[in-house]
Specification:
The protein has 174 residues and is mainly beta. It has helices at 2-13, 78-87, and strands spanning 20-35, 38-55, 63-69, 95-106, 109-118, 121-133, 136-144, 154-155, 160-173. The protein is elongated.
Length: 174
């Protein structure tokens, strides 16, 4: 009984956080928005990975960086794919870059510092809240075309307009 009590006391006194890690096996990103005639959704998904992401690590060197070829986004049909690629200047900026660092657990949810480089513009989101979902960790960002120094596209002489707001859903699966 005394040994059990001693072990419990030693465990409780050892308050130094333990490094934890998760193996990311899938990365999913969806860019969606609304037009004057309906919504659109462009998806990127890459599975079969084995990237390591560290939780509550004291070093900022523990980060995950990945590039996304813009050509790999699928919007449902070739016309919307082409419009999406033209809008985000895929010929000039053929890939987007995502950097995840400083992942912390916070009582049922997580936070991280996320940076996204798209169309040559870097956007930083510090302490971004990530929710635990069955697929892994999920974040939702709302961007505007102005954030990316882009103009919302118009088609058919302005009859079809894309709303200024874009939603970026980001999931790391494990």
């Amino acid at each position: 009984m005394m040994r059990i009590l001693l072990v419990l006391i030693l465990i409780l006194l050892n308050t130094e956080p333990k490094e934890r890690e998760v193996i990311v096996t899938k990365k999913m990103i969806t860019v969606s928005g609304q037009t004057s005639i309906g919504g659109f959704s462009c998806d990127y998904s890459k599975g079969g990975l084995k990237d390591t992401l560290f939780i509550d690590h004291s070093s900022s060197l523990k980060e995950m960086v990945f590039d996304i070829p813009v050509q790999d986004f699928s919007c449902g049909n070739f016309i919307i794919n082409k419009d999406f690629r033209n809008t985000i200047k895929a010929d000039k900026y053929p890939s987007a870059r995502v950097r995840v660092q400083n992942l912390k657990s916070n009582y049922g949810h997580y936070t991280c510092d996320l940076s996204v480089t798209l169309v040559g513009k870097k956007l930083d989101f510090s302490s971004l809240v990530l929710k635990r979902v069955p697929e892994g960790l999920h974040a939702n960002l709302v961007l505007s075309f102005d954030d990316l120094d882009l103009e919302a596209p118009k088609k058919m002489g302005g009859m079809i307009k894309v709303e200024e707001k874009l939603t970026l859903d980001f999931t790391l699966g494990f």
